């Protein structure tokens, strides 16, 4: 028998009206605009785009505003929106060597072509709260210096000249890049699919896993070969035109992690690599992604699988925060009937145990 | 097959690619100003869109290896037809339909010899100059954060 329980409708409507009120907050204060969120909370916008797996700064800012700053809720909103749109096609792969660099650092080479460009970084700040930001004070214009025309060389190419590092990951000619949004997940997974999952994976989850590898759970001896942040051109082959056109630029963060490798029966001792590429400016995420990418290559490189970060099914199945929050948060929805069934079961088990205990007592008394 | 796909490939690839790339980067304001300044407004028939959809953006493993799907981006596209029979296409990141509709009109006008000069000077030149100035400013601001290492010599040997 199924009994539908009604009565929540008015409560739900009023709850949503209350939510809208609390979202707006104190009416005497100006409402925050989408442009203000894009300009002044840009890294929150970047995180939402990366984990929603949809690049659109205005829509991501809208979702941040609608979610009252709850970023996982905002990611959920943007993810849901993307399902309403048709797909026009697939871009030409991004060329990150042609990036308009805004930040580029290497922890492996001090002097390298293009130099160490710090860009707008939190690094080397003292992490002291700045009381001047309590007021809306004047902010100085950035310093400017003549830019050099010197190319910003990829660090992996420097090591590649000596043959001391593995090449960029390749597949057989006929391998078509897999797409998680089109096919159900299956394990084991190829590295391209893993990278797609990691690129949209939860920053906190990947950060914790990356950290675990540093603490010895699947150690990979990493060095930041290079981190670069900047804008790259997105190009699309347009059938009507018969060639690829630029759609504009997007900002991405790329991390090349360089890892020690003792060598195996198949490969000589050399450096191996983990790769991270993320929408927006997010080097924490790109670094975590590259640590986890490398850890997940354990089997391919003939390493022992001993740690959570090396367990592909565990990592990839739990990296998506929209899926995770859906399943965790569903627990708060009505489970009245399930719980009644469990309650009856516990009562019966309890009664059985008590009956058995009383029965035992009766026997004991009889013996005495 | 819809009409947009029947309008076949064009020959002047390099020039058209450059024009399309610049039109994708145009602001609505730049397009509107150029439209307002256009001496004779053409009759424009919408063929497809403007409509918004997604493009799956790909990266490469290790930066230069096999492609993988990084995530999607919103893209708006439009195709228009001038009374002369010239078709204009435009594609740009984002969801701004009016911008992309105007971009498609200017893509068509760029292909016509009478209006190409106008499109070049009143629009493409303006966009190109703005992008160059923005890129230069960013590059210079970044260059000011370049680390100049120097060595402190300590002791006698």
TrEMBL record, chain A:
Pfam families hit by this protein: PhnI
InterPro entries documented for this protein: PhnI
GO biological process terms on file: organic phosphonate metabolic process
Protein name: Alpha-D-ribose 1-methylphosphonate 5-triphosphate synthase subunit PhnI
Organism in which the protein naturally occurs: Xaviernesmea oryzae
From TrEMBL, chain B:
InterPro entries from the UniProt entry: Phosphonate_metab_PhnG (IPR009609)
The protein, known as: Alpha-D-ribose 1-methylphosphonate 5-triphosphate synthase subunit PhnG
Top-rank taxon, per record: Bacteria
A GO biological process held by the record: organic phosphonate transport
């Amino acid at each position: 028998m199924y009994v539908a329980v009604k009565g929540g409708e008015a409560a739900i409507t009023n709850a949503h009206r209350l939510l809208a009120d609390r979202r707006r907050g104190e009416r005497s204060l100006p409402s925050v605009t989408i442009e203000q969120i894009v300009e002044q909370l840009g890294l929150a916008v970047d995180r939402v785009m990366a984990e929603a797996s949809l690049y659109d700064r205005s829509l991501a800012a809208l979702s941040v505003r609608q979610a009252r700053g709850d970023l996982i809720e905002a990611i959920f909103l943007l993810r849901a929106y993307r399902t309403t749109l048709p797909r026009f096609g697939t871009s030409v792969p991004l060329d990150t060597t042609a990036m308009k660099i805004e930040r580029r650092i290497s922890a492996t080479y001090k002097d390298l072509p293009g130099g160490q460009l710090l860009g707008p970084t939190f690094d080397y700040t003292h992490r002291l709260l700045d009381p001047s930001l309590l007021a809306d004070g004047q902010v100085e214009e950035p310093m400017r210096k003549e830019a050099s025309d010197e190319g910003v060389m990829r660090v992996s190419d420097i090591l590649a000249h000596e043959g001391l590092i593995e090449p960029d990951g390749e597949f057989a000619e006929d391998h078509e890049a897999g797409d998680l949004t089109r096919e159900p997940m299956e394990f084991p997974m190829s590295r391209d699919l893993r990278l797609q999952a990691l690129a949209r994976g939860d920053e906190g989850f990947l950060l914790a896993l990356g950290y675990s590898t540093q603490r010895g759970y699947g150690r990979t001896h990493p060095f930041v070969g290079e981190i670069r942040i900047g804008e790259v051109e997105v190009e699309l082959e347009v059938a009507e035109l018969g060639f690829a056109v630029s759609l504009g630029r997007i900002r991405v963060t790329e991390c090349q992690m360089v890892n020690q490798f003792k060598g195996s029966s198949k490969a000589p001792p050399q450096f191996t690599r983990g790769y991270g590429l993320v929408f927006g400016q997010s080097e924490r995420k790109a670094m975590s992604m590259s640590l986890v990418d490398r850890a997940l290559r354990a089997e391919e490189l003939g390493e022992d699988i001993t740690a959570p970060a090396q367990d592909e099914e565990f990592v990839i199945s739990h990296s998506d925060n929209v899926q995770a929050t859906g399943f965790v948060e569903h627990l708060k929805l009505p489970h009245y009937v399930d719980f009644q069934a469990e309650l009856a079961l516990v009562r019966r088990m309890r009664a059985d145990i008590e009956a058995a205990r009383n029965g035992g007592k009766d026997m004991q008394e009889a013996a005495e | 097959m819809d009409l947009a796909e029947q309008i076949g490939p064009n020959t002047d690839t390099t020039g058209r690619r450059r024009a399309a790339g610049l039109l994708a980067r145009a602001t609505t304001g730049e397009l509107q100003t150029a439209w307002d300044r256009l001496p004779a407004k053409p009759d424009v028939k919408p063929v497809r869109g403007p409509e918004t959809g997604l493009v799956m953006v790909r990266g490469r493993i290790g930066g230069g290896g096999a492609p993988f799907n990084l995530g999607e981006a919103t893209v708006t596209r439009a195709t228009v037809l001038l009374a002369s029979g010239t078709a204009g296409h435009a594609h740009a990141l984002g969801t701004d339909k009016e911008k992309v509709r105007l971009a498609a009109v200017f893509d068509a006008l760029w292909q016509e010899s009478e209006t190409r000069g106008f499109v070049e000077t009143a629009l493409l030149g303006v966009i190109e100059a703005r992008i160059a100035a923005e890129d230069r400013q960013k590059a210079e601001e970044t260059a000011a954060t370049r680390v100049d290492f120097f060595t402190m010599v300590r002791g006698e040997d």
